[in-house]
Amino acid sequence: LEGVKITVGPPYFARVFTPIAALVILMLGVGPHLPWKRAGRVAWGRLFTLGAIGAGLALGIARLTFGPGPVGAMAAFALGGWLVVLALAEWGRRLRALGGPSIFARLRRLPRAQHGMTLAHLGLAVLVFGVSAAESFTEEHLVMLAPGEVVRVGAFDVRFDGVEPVAGPNYTAIEGHFTARRNGHVVTRLAPQQRTYWAPPMETTEAAIRPFVTGDLYVVIGDPVKGRWSARLYWKPLVGWIWIGALMIAFGGLIALSDRRLRIFARRRSRRKRRSGMKAGMAT
Fold first, then answer.
1. Which residues have CB under 8 Å from 284's CB, separation 6+?
2. Minimal CA–CA distance to 111: which of 241, 245, 242, 265?
3. Cα(113)–Cα(24) distance, rounded to whole angstroms?
4. Model confidence, pTM
5. Over pLDDT 70: what percentage of the chain?
6. 26 and 130 part of one domain
7. Which residues pair with 140 in a beta bridge?
8. Same domain, 196 and 153
């Protein structure tokens, strides 16, 4: 309005998006349970009690796993727990309402839309856990290492074993060798590289990445200085959960869309629109 150019960056989006996302997660947990316009105080109280139990459990597990962290990260874990417990509670309530002698028979009778919604909500919670952990509890170590030296990264003791020259189809490289141990046992070996390509001539750094269920371990080799090598080592907890959660959301949506009832409803609505269009045309 005043002709002044302003820049909107990640901090602004974080401040604006975070409260909206928190409200959406709260409503996603509560919404499927409520008979809208007929929910009394007892129903609301029961839902918030269930959600609070889930939030407390998730918060406790996060504190035990990562230790004290930023308020925003802890709140995100609590919201994820809220959504997990309420999604599973709604799924279980609908299964119990079907009755029947066998849990497998009830699972088959429960509409696909319900299965899909539950899976998608759980996927959103998993994604929230992953984003919160990766953003708030990532470890980064920039070190100078001589062969045989060890650095602690996350739950791993990573030893630098040295470097060697290697050749590729169109490049030469210096390859570093690292051994990661957990509780004294070798769990993986990593071999990051510094590559020099011939055509076109350029240098690149190839990180070595080892994914685990609990997070990803990254190692990057740098330049030598007086017999020691610079290296960056990262531990990104639960970063793989971001992708797992996104896949769960997508798969849950596909399951819900495959529900025959939704297709029938869509066809009926389409026919009603065509009839109303024909009547409007005849009236004119």
1. none
2. 265
3. 20
4. 0.80
5. 81
6. yes
7. 234
8. yes
Handedness of CA 21, 26, 31, 32 (dihedral sign): positive
pLDDT digits (tens, 9 = 90+) for 177-201: 999 999 999 999 999 999 999 888 8
In terms of phi and psi (left: phi > 0; alpha: psi -120 to 50; beta: otherwise), the region of 212 is beta
| Residue 4 belongs to a domain | no
150: tokens are: 């060890």
| Domain region containing 14 | 10-136+240-283
The stretches of the chain forming alpha helices (DSSP H) are 10-30, 41-66, 71-98, 103-109, 112-136, 239-257, 260-283
Q: Are residues 119 and 249 in the same domain?
A: yes
Who wins on pLDDT, 255 or 33? 255
The answer to whether position 211 is within a domain reads yes
Q: Rounded distance, CA 110 to CA 88, Å? A: 14
What is the tens place of the pLDDT at every residue in 45-66? Answer: 788 888 899 999 999 999 999 9
CB-based contacts of 163, cutoff 8 Å, min separation 6: 174, 175, 176, 177, 221, 229
